[in-house]
Amino acid sequence: MNAGGVDQVEVAVIGAGLAGSCLAGALARAGIRVALIDAQAGHAAARREFRAEKFGADQMALFAGLGFGPALRARTTETREVAVVRYGRLACREAAREWGAPYPVLVRAVREALPAGLLRPGRVADLALGPERQEITLGDGSRLAARLVVLATGLGQALHARAGLRRRVLSPRHSLAAGFDMAAPRDRFPFPALTYFSEGFGGRDAYLTLFPLGTVMRANLFCYRDPGEAWVADLRRDPAATLRATMPRLPAACPDLAVAGPLEIRPIDLVRTEGVERDGLVVIGDAFQTACPVTGTGIGKLLTDADRLARVHVPAWLATPGMGRDKIAAFYADPVKRACDARSLRASRYARGLAVETGALWRARRLRNRVARTAIRLAADGPQAAASLALSLALGL
Predict the structure, then answer these.
(1) 184-194 b/e with 16+ CB inside 10 Å = b?
(2) pTM of the entire structure?
(3) What is the spatial distance between Cα 302 and Cα 176, in angstroms, rounded to a whole number?
(4) Does the domain at residues 171-268 carry the CATH identifier 1.10.3470?
(5) Where are the domains positioned within the chain?
(6) What share of the chain is helix, strand, coil (3-state, %, to 5)?
(7) Which of 371, 338, 365, 368 lies closest to 352, judged by CA?
(8) Would you say domain 2-78+101-170+270-351 falls under CATH 3.30.70.240?
(9) DSSP 190
(10) What are the tens digits of pLDDT across the range 151-175?
C-alpha cells in the first residue's frame, strides 16, 4: 500500500540474514504486511561469510516451526552419527542428527523460500522512530512507513548509532574460528563426522570438528588465540603440520590431514547492544548479542528471537494501538529469550575459562570434568575397568 509516496507496511525487517529472513517469512505467512530490506538483496548470492556452517536437531525444529524446514533440508548435508574423541581416545560414536552447509547457502535457501515480493533491495540511509509510526528512508530516496522496525543486521553496526543504540564489548577477542576444506573426498574418511576435543585441559585449543558438505569434508577449528599470534601464522602456512603439533594423537583418528585451499579465519568478540528499549524498534540475533561458536549456540539464539517475536509478541503488539517502548520491553523480558541469551553467554565464558584460566577453581573444574568423563567411559568398558579407575584415584595416580 502506498500513501503520499510512502510505502505502508506493518513490520519492516532490516537485514535478510538467517534471523531477519526467518522472522519476515513467518510474519508474512501469518498474514502480516512485511517488508524485508537488505542492501545485498539484489545480488545473485548471499555475500561470502564464514560462520554458522552446522546446526543440530533443536535448531532444525526451530527452522521448521518458522516454516523453513523443507527448504533447509533440501540444501544441507545431513549426518546421523558423530565420532567423539576426548583426551586423544575415541569416547563414543554418538547418534546425533546434524545438518551442514556454508552460511551463504543457508541464507540463500531461506530467501528462496520467502513469499514472493517480500525481499526488497535497498540500503537504509535514515531511520526515524516514534511511539506510533516508524519511517525508513532508503539510499535511493524512497520511503517506507511501518508500525514496527526490526533490526536484524547481524555483525553490521552502521544503523546502531543512528537508532541511538550502544554496543558494549563483553569479551574482546574471546575466541578464534578457522574454517577449511579437507583435500581428501568425504568418502575417504573413517567416520561420517568427527568432533576432536583438546587432548588436555588448560590448552588454548577447544576442538576440531569435521563434517560433510556435499562430497567435501569440511573442518572448523575453534581455539582461544589472538589472530596476530605466530601459531595462527603457522596454521595459515601449514595447517596439517600445525594440527599435528597441536593435537599429536589426531592422526590416529584422522590419518589424512591434507587441506585444500586457503583458510578462513575469524576472531570473535562477545558484544551486546544496550539501550534497546526504544519506541518502535526491536533488535534481534547477533545485532543484539553475539555468540561464541565454540558453544554452538548462535543459530539457536537467533532463531529463538525470531520464533518468540513471530508467535508471541508481534501479533499481540499489532492487535492494539501504539508501539511504545513499554510494548518493546516485553520482548527483552521474555523468559524464553532471556534464558536462551543467558545460556549462550554463560556457556561461552565457561568454555573459555576451562581452556585458559589458571586459578584453583578452574583447575578443580578441569579435574572434576576429566574424572567424571573417564568414569563414564570406563563404566561403559565394564566393571573391571571401573575398578581400575577407582584404585588409581585412591592411590593418587
Answers:
(1) bebeebebbbb
(2) 0.90
(3) 20
(4) no
(5) 2-78+101-170+270-351, 171-268, 359-394
(6) 40, 30, 30
(7) 365
(8) no
(9) S
(10) 999 888 888 888 889 999 999 999 9
